[in-house]
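ok trying again, last paste got cut off:
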Amino acid sequence: MSDDWQPGPDNPPWRALGGTEAVKALAERFYDAMERTEPALAALHKRDAQGKVDRGSRERFGLFLVGWLGGPQDYMAQYGHPRLRMRHAHVPIDSKMRDAWLRSMAIALDETGVTGSLRAFLDARFAQVADFLRNVPDEEQEEQAAG
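nice, full thing came through this time. structure:
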């Protein structure tokens, strides 16, 4: 992927990644990486009979990523506004889970060959959103507050 990519209205990350099918493939790699390397994070997801993160979760995340990265807004058409905090409120997300999520996405981006300025942009955006979704204190913070 191009090292000199710059975001813009005519050049969204969705296009730079290769379009809808490429972004959906990134979502698949993300969940595959999570299942291989982050069992505690994978355990927070609905699973199928084989123990894999279920198809519905994979497909919804793929559609979300397509729209979030500047592609067609099919997620919004099917599910409404993402309301990320609300939709993740039932999932305990601390810094450890945030970091596990980011490691899984980093593996998926590595396996997809995303580098350069596009990678830097995506790493920063994913980190912002992952941090925004934290909804429980970290253990160390709890221990310090209690003691």
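cool. Residues 1 and 113 are 7 Å apart (CA to CA). The domain at 13-146 is CATH 1.10.490.10 (Globin-like).
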